[in-house]
Amino acid sequence: GELRRWCGPFGPPHREVGLMLFSAFKLALGSIAGNAMRSFLTILGVIIGVAAVITMVTLGSGATEQVTSDIEGLGSNLVMIVPGSGMRMGGQAVSKPFKSDDADAIRDQIANVVAVSPSSQKRIVAVYGNQNWATNVTGIVGEYFDVFDWKFSEGRSLTEGEVRSGASSCVIGETVRIELFGALSPIGESIRLGNVSCRVVGLLDAKGQSSFGTDQDDLVLVPLRTFQRRISGNTDVALIAISVSGEALINRVKGDVTYLLRERRRISAGEEDDFSVRDMTEITDMLTSTTTIMTMLLGAVAGVSMLVGGIGIMNIMLVSVTERTREIGIRLAIGARRGDVLLQFLVEAVVLASLGGLIGVILALLASWLLAGMMGIPFTPDPAIVFLSFVFSAVVGVAFGYFPARRAATLNPIEALRYE
Question: Scanning 19, 145, 336, 405, which has its CA 20 to 30 A from the CA of 62?
Answer without folding.
Answer: 145
